[in-house]
Each structure stands twice: as C-alpha cells, then as structure tokens.
Amino acid sequence: MTRTPAPRIPLATLEEGTPFAARHIGPDAADEAKMLAQVGFGSLDELTAAAVPEAVRDASGLRLPEARDEAAVLAELRSLAARNTVLHSMIGLGYHGTFTPPVIQRNVLENPAWYTAYTPYQPEISQGRLEALLNFQTVVADLTGLPTAGASLLDEGTAAAEAMALARRVGKGKGGVFLVDADCLPQTIAVVRTRAEPTGVELVVADLAGGIPEDVAGRGLFGVLLQYPGASGALRDPRPVIERAHELGAVVTLATDLLALTLLASPGELGADIAVGSSQRFGVPMAFGGPHAGFMAVREGYARNLPGRLVGVSRDAAGRPAHRLALQTREQHIRREKATSNICTAQVLLAVMAGMYAVYHGPEGLATIARRTHRYAALLAAGLRDGGVEVVHDAFFDTVTARVPGRAAAVVEAARRAGVNLRLTDADHVGVSCDETTGRAQLAAVWSAFGVAGDAFGIEGLDARTPDALPGTLVRRDSYLGHPVFHRYRSETEMLRYLRRLADRDYALDRGMIPLGSCTMKLNATVEMAAVTWPEFAQLHPFAPLEQAEGYLELIRELESRLAEITGYDRVSLQPNAGSQGELAGLLAVRAYHRANGQPQRTVCLIPSSAHGTNAASAAMAGLKVVVVATRANGDVDAEDLRAKIDAHREELAVLMVTYPSTHGVFEADIAAICAAVHEAGGQVYVDGANLNALVGLARPGRFGADVSHLNLHKTFCIPHGGGGPGVGPVAVRAHLAPYLPGHPLQPAAGPAGGGTGPVSAAPWGSAGILPISWAYLRLMGAAGLRRATQVAVLGANYVASRLEPHYPVLFTGPGGLVAHECVIDLRPLTKATGVTIDDVAKRLIDYGFHAPTMSFPVAGTLMIEPTESENLAELDRFCSAMIAIRTEIDRVGAGEWPREDNPLRNAPHTAEQLCGEWPHPYSRREAAYPSGASQESKYWPPVRRIDGAFGDRNLLCSCPPVADYADQAD
Q1: What is the mean pLDDT of residues 452-466?
Q2: Which residue in 793, 857, 945, 687 sits closest to 47, CA to CA?
Q3: Is the C or the N end of the chain the one with fewer CB within 10 Å?
Q4: 379: which residues sit within 8 A by CB, 6+ positions away?
Q5: Contact 62, 516 (CB under 8 A)
Q6: Does 551 score more than 50 pLDDT?
Q7: Which 3 state secondary structure label does DSSP give 104?
Q8: Residue range 376-397: mean pLDDT, rounded
Q9: Strand pairing partners for 168?
C-alpha cells in the first residue's frame, strides 16, 4: 500500500517548539472557544473590548523583548549569574554564610508542596505548615527566653520598627522619644528612622555603653532598642540599661542573633520586653539580602499586640489538638487605620526552613555550630593581637573589630584579592565576622590581609592558649528546645519523612485549584524557580562591593525597566519586600513630594470603604489622616461622595488610594475622571496594584491617571506565596515622585540620586534572591503572552460567574454585566433562609478536593473567586460542578431533609478517622467523603475536623505543647 508522505514542515517552524505561554496558560484553543461561547463572545479581543472601559485601554502595546523558550531563558540567567563574583563573605552586619541542609533545600525551598501553598486561613488543610511554623515560634521563644513569638516578620529592620510601634502602644513612659543604641545594625537604624518620623516619634541614636544619657531620660522615653551582640561585635551586659529604662517606664527591645543565643543568656533572662532579629543564619541563603524570616518575641501580656501572624494550638470538632492562626490574624481588615500593623504577608517559607534547620540539628547541633563559629572568631582575634593589631573589644561572639589607623581600606582590598570580603567600617576600622562556613583557610587569608603571619593548618597551639571571649556573666545556663520534635530527626531518612508527612497534611497548588479572589494563586513555573538556589544568586552578601554583583544589578535594572513599561510609570523600586511595604513606600513618596513643594498640610488620604485593610493601616503609618469614601451598591466608588470629600478637604488632600480593577472585581468606567478630579484639587492618585493581573497588556495605571502604585510580584508576576510569604511589593511612580523612592545608606545605588526617603526594608533591593522568578516570567512570556494571560484570566472569571450565577447571585458586575479577573458570589440570602454559612461552604469544598475562595472580603457573607489564567477548563468545570452540587446540598438543608445542625456542610470537613467510627448522621458516609462529582482517584483527606477558633483564642498556646500533653494524647 502506498503511503502519502507527510507534508514537509519548515525548519523554522520546528525550531519554534511550544511557546512557554502555552505552558503557563491553562485553556487551549478548544477550551477558550467553549468558554467564550458560555459568556457570549467570539474572541478574547471582543471580551476585552466589552469588559475593559475604553478610557483606560492602552492600544500602544508593550515594548518588551520577544519571548524566549525555557532553555534560552535559563541560558540568559546562567550568563547573568556568571557576572556575579561570590567571594567568601565575612562582612556580617546581620547577614551570614550558612549551610542549607540539602534535605531542606530540596524538600522545602525547591518543593512546590511548600512554595505553592497559600496563607493558612483555612487551617484544616494547612496543618503541615502550621506545625512547621509552630516549630519556628518555639525556636524563637525558647532561644529568646520570651513566652510568645510570632510566625515571622519581613526582616530584622522592619521587625525593630514594629517593636518601636508596639512599645509606643503598651509602654508607660512619658514622652515620645525612642532611644536607639548606636551599635545597632546601621540598616536597622535607617529603617526605624524611616518609620519613626511620619508618626511623630522622636528618634535619638546614642552610644549607650555608658548607660542612658540623662538629658534623653529627662525628655521622656517610651522605648529603647539595643543590639545584642552589637553591630561592631561588642558583647556588653545590657542589664543596667534595661533596668534604667524600666525605671523610666520604657519598653526595651533587644535585637539579637539566634545562633549567639544558643550560648548567651537570653533576652528574657536579661529583662528585655521584646526580642527581634533575623533567622537567616539558620540555613537560609544570604541571597543578596532576602528573603529571610525576621522574628519577634514578647514578654507575658504583650501577645495580643504582636504584629503579623501568630500560630496557636486549638482543638477540632473531635477534641483533638489542631493548629490555626490566632488572635489578630488579618486584624488590619477590621481595625484599618487603627491597626497595630499593615503587615499582610509573613516570610513563611523561610521561617519553615529556619525552623527545620533547628529540628534537624537540635539544640546540641546548634550549640556546636555556635561554639565553632565563636572559636574561629576568638582565634582570629588572638592571631591579630599576636601580630600587633589592636582588637577593639575583648568580649564578642562572632564579630571582631580591628583598629588599623589609616589603612583599613588597604586591608579590605588585600582580603578581597585573597577571596574574602571584609567590612570597611571607616578609615581606621575593619570588621570581620565568622559564621558556620568559616574555616582555617579564611583565618589565614584575613591574617595575611592585615599583614600578620599565620598558618591555617597549625593553629592548635593558638587554640590551646586562647580563651573564649564570652563573659561569664552572659553565658547561658538554662536549656532550650526540649520538645521531642527537636530530638527525633537526626538522620536524613527521618527528616525526609517528617517533611513529607507535613506536606501531605496540606493543600497547595500542586494538588489543585486555589480559587482565591484578590490573591492570584497561579502557576509558579519550575523554570522560573530554577535560578533561586544557584550559588551565584543565593550566596551573595547584600553589602558586597557592587562590582561583584554585576549580574544581579543587570537583572534588577531590566526587571525595573520592564515593570515600568508594563505599568506605564517612569521609575520602579524593588526594595519593598511585601505589598504592605510597597504601599508604605508609595505613600511616603507622596508625603515627601507635598512637603518638598511647601504643602506639608496635605495629609488627608481618601480611601473607599471597600479598600483592602492594609491601605488604611499604611496611610496611618505614613502620617496621613484617613477619610473614608462611600462605595455604591455595584461596587464602584461613589463619585458624588468622592467629590464632596474632595471639596471638604481640598487644601489638605494628599492622595486618593483606590484599587483597580476595584476590590469588588469590576472595571470602574469612570476611573480616569476620578483621577482627574483628585489632581485638580492638588492631590495624588495611588492605585493599589493587587489586581494588576487584570491589566497587564491591556491598561497601564501610569497612563490612565495614577501617580504611584505598588505591585505584587507574588501575585501577578509569579513569585509563589510560599504558605504566606515570601512576597515582593515594588513601588512604581511617575517621574515627579521618583526622587522620593526608598534609598539605602549602605548601598546608595539602590535608591534615587538624592538619597530618597530612607529605606523601608533592611536590604537595599529587598528580597533580591527571588527576583529571578519574575524576571524569567517576563522573559518567557513576552508582550503577546502577557496580554493573552490577562485576557484569559478575565475570561476565566467571567466563565465561572456565568456558570454559577443561576445558583448563586454574582454580587458586582461592570459594563455589560461582566466582571474583571474575579467575581463575588453572595451567600447571605441562602444563609438567612437555611442557616448554611460561608464557613460551611468553605469547609465543604475541602471534601470536594478544593481550597475555598476568599471569604467575607470585600463583603461579609460572600465568596470572592479568582480562577487565574493557569487553570484549564477541566479544572474550572470541576470547581463549578462542586459549587453547584453544594448548592443542591444547601437546598436539602433548606427543605428540611437534613437538620440545620447536622448535615454534610455543618460537619465538614470529614476525616478518614471520622468515617471509620460511629455514624450518627442523617447522611451516608459516602455522601460525606465522596459527594457528587468529587474525584475518587486522588482524594485529599483533611488531617483534622473543623477547628474551634474561639477555644484557641481563649486558651492561647503558641509554641510546641508541653511533652506531657503529647504523652496524655498517646495514652
């Protein structure tokens, strides 16, 4: 039989392969056609024209490099990485070399079961990462000697600033002075200074080695910040300063080092009220400054004032212990401008790593690492002294400051030529920090750089005659990390299985769709993640000489430029390491702009009532007065009320903060007119970039009237949420605000030429270590891919809204009855008629194999659904089918077939253990575990039943329960 030869395909076509955009975007052409038919449009462009108001549409196209395939992008990243020079860092200043145990690197940092998880607001399906965070909290609480630690903060500098705010709230001191020791980390002092001035705090920096100056004491203190050990390495007993501060009614914060605390007396024992710091050296790479998990621990009585998140132990419906977020979770949504903090993101992924580092090493292993680190520092100092070099301090943990009059720069340069970076403190002083990675070769190189003869392989004699440099009065006497979890997992086999067990208790994006409105849980492609752990990106110190970071700087410049092009702004700063920090940076820029123009009275910030809670909290932190603007029934800003508020505050108006598309998930048609009205009154317009996933390639805030936005790289630009962090929240501005972007005292190149407004994050470029993710996403997608991704995200939301509307009212729509990239469905009428709540629906979705949508935001009693562009039609239909089946279940409750207090929704989620026991319910086990349409092939079994949140708040327990509790449970 004669076969017809296949048609020849041109080589150029074969070389193109499958574009990355087709891998990222879930629906294929056939899916897309079916979805468009459902919503009544013939093409994506037709849908876009109908949904996106003409006044904001941008037809000019994005000037971005052409998309490249995965191999080519990896090659480009390799080329950039090769331009970084990674020397052995002994710079210190809060950033240290560390060995990330490979079992933790591979099975946490590089594992999508951990990095694609969302914040644990649904605790029943977050028990794994909640346990891991409880471990972290226990590490921090035990080592600091303070009873309550949070689930992580953004970095050490911002943690210190949060401690200042906490001290102001709870302190009894008379006056507005916050006193900071001059030996605190310089970046911490700078961040605290940035945060102090707008809120009216008088910041005084002084040398506290001799105690609190009496002139400062007489002006009234509410708080004191000390570094223990100091930035210079000096290890002083802080008790006299703490006691004097307490006499004055001030709250004392110790910024400290967890590794040092394995050997040193804890802040709690010394009398401190608050301890802050960074857990970076517990197995988290320096990564040019971040991301790293900051920490805060507080004394008894302060727990309810902690900023950020707190993991607590509660119980489930069966009475078994279960973990959940406690107390103030997302409290800024309730208290708004009166919130204790604007933080909405933690550093969960990095906190998990640090906690697991402690689990893997245990207290003995951590102490051994600390002792080795200290011995190298002690030997380094002894060798310098033997060579005639003056060592400034006799007591230190890991950092030695040497005085070499007039030749400090020459010493630093000599060490650099030998492959070691030291810290140039000033013309006469050099700082040298030892860490877990320090060895004899580094000591020899440093001695040589100082002109001291030393033999890296003959230091046993020096070791034998050199005492430790830890004062006896500060040596730790008490034990720590006594819980069994810190003693069980010494072999890699056991550690691997522990990490797997915890991951299996969670629901992350690697299992299925997470349809969270406002939070954009979409594909974080493996290729985008690849470079994060490359040593050339992961091992660079943030204060390394910039000529050693040429690849990083080029990547940063390109990412800033491409984000500016996408948003229509002129300049972008990547320093803010969370959306909340980006908000603050943007508002500080607006405030500085008005003050520079001689209009300091412009302090009013207009915010719609529907806005994300962090908006109001950030405004208050920036020293602005919040005035609320009403929202109309359809979700739009009430234009009439807005005009009235503008007129009432015309001379004081600083800025309007709006989210676009709106928080209600609609494109407001009159946004350009709103911007014009604010500008006419002399104000600025801040567009919250939380919903940028509906705009990329279609509209640009900087072109339709906005002056400033923060962006969420962990939403629109594919940095994964990591179980609640890391995030990156760059701030983008038009040219007139560019001089007021954040600067940094240790790396001026990170900010505008004039120095900017001061840093909002401790590291110059924030969480630089994860910027390759977003850089890769933009490079892989190109302009056309980005535009199509946005269009498909809008299509997906409208498809879901169309399918669910016959069963649940869609609360807000824009032109033509369309939504943007998310939709809000209203359960309030059903709750009133049947007693079934959104909690019941959210927990029942677990039985169907889904994470719940966003609950009660922006309206109580509603669910906000965002499918994103990454989910294909089959997954969207699976979700819609589950929601429709749940509506049928609700109807059965309403009809009296199932009692209001005993039905599959009220009892959800159902565990395997529950199904194996007695069954007193009026529905079957099959209906409980395998409801109509739920997959039986890959059933996710929740590890606990519904959790009693109120019990956990009444009986607050925020570290690993006592061993006796576990023994009782076993019995």
Answers
A1: 81
A2: 793
A3: N
A4: 443, 459, 462, 463, 466
A5: no
A6: yes
A7: helix
A8: 97
A9: none
515 CB contacts (<8 Å, ≥6 apart)? 521, 800, 850, 851, 853, 865, 866, 867, 871, 879
Query: Rounded distance, CA 894 to CA 187, Å?
Result: 59
Name the nearest CA neighbour of 227 among 260, 262, 255, 263. Answer: 255
DSSP-derived pairing of the beta strands 429-433 and 571-573: unpaired
Q: Is the pLDDT of residue 836 over 70?
A: yes
Q: Which two tokens stand for residue 67?
A: 């998309």
Domains in the chain, ordered, with CATH? 131-359 (3.40.640.10), 535-779 (3.40.640.10)
For residue 725, give Cα distances in angstroms to 294, 549, 714, 893. Answer: 12, 25, 8, 39
What interhelical angle do 127-144 and 348-386 show, nearest 10? 30
DSSP state of 273: S
Residue 548, both tokens = 């050693």
Among 220-229, 370-379, 630-639, 678-687, the minimum mean pLDDT is found in 630-639
Give yes or no for a contact between 297 and 507, defined as CB atoms under 8 angstroms apart. Answer: no
Q: What is the pLDDT of residues 173-214, one digit of tens each?
A: 777 999 999 999 999 999 999 999 999 999 999 999 999 999
Question: Is residue 204 within 8 Å of 215, Cβ to Cβ?
Answer: no
Identify the pLDDT of residue 343. Answer: 78
Greatest C-alpha distance within the chain: 104
Q: List, in order, residues 6 or more apart from 13 with CB less than 8 Å away.
A: none
Share of the chain above pLDDT 90, in %: 87
Cross-strand bridge partners of residue 710: 731
Q: Which two tokens stand for residue 462?
A: 């020096």
Both tokens of 361, joined, read 């090493």
- List the Cα angle 557/559/563 in 5-degree steps: 120
Q: Quick check: 872 and 28 in contact, CB under 8 A?
A: yes
H/E segment holding residue 228: strand 221-228
Whole-angstrom Cα distance, residue 599 to residue 590? 11
On the 0-12 / 13-18 / 19+ scale of CB atoms within 10 A, 828 is middle
**DSSP strand pairing (653-659 vs 604-608):** parallel
Q: Between residues 573 and 639, which one has the greater pLDDT?
A: 573
Question: Which residue type sits at 183?
Answer: D
DSSP line for 71-92: HHHHHHHHHHHHTB--PEE--B
pLDDT tens profile 591-629: 999 999 999 999 999 999 888 778 898 999 999 999 999
Q: Which of 816, 694, 790 is nearest to 39 (CA)?
A: 816
Question: Rounded to whole angstroms, what are the CA distances from 39 to 33, 803, 814, 863, 885?
Answer: 10, 9, 14, 21, 21
Which residue from 948, 918, 916, 847 is spatially nearest to 321, judged by alpha carbons?
A: 948
* pLDDT tens, residue by residue, 348-385: 999 999 999 999 999 999 999 999 999 999 999 999 99
Query: Strands 862-865 and 294-298: what pairing?
Result: unpaired
Which residues neighbour 889 within 8 Å (Cβ) at sequence distance 6 or greater?
844, 898, 903, 904, 905, 931
Would you say residue 571 has pLDDT above 50?
A: yes
- Please answer whether residues 557 and 894 qualify as being in contact, where contact means their C-beta atoms are separated by less than 8 angstroms: no
One-letter-per-residue 3-state SS of 241-265:
HHHHHHHCCCEEEEEEEHHHHCCEC
Q: What is the pLDDT of residues 692-724, one digit of tens each?
A: 999 999 999 999 999 999 999 999 999 999 999
CA angle 267, 273, 275 (to 5 degrees): 50
pLDDT digits 0-9 by tens, 406-449: 999 999 999 999 999 999 999 999 999 999 999 999 999 999 99
Helix, strand or coil for residue 439? coil
CA distances from 113 to 109, 485, 848 (A): 10, 21, 19
Tokens 């471990």 locate to 135
